[in-house]
Specification:
Blueprint (H helix, E strand, L loop, with lengths): L1 H17 L12 H27 L3
Helix pairs in contact: 1-2
């Protein structure tokens, strides 16, 4: 779940840089980073969901 949270935060930063909300970076204003960041947010969300499901099952 921690990796999923990290992926979501990193994806959010990349998305904001790609959309040029966060300036002063080589990634600023490049829409490819907005797309990659959005995809990373989705991956992070999936990792969190998988982690929550494993946690709710308990020890196997």
């Amino acid at each position: 779940m921690s990796l999923g949270l990290l992926a979501m935060v990193l994806g959010g930063v990349w998305t904001l840089q790609g959309l040029d909300y966060l300036g002063d970076s080589l990634m600023s204003g490049q829409t490819v980073w907005a797309a990659v960041g959005g995809a990373l947010i989705v991956v992070g969300l999936l990792l969190i969901i998988i982690g929550m499901r494993r946690r709710s099952r308990g020890p196997s």
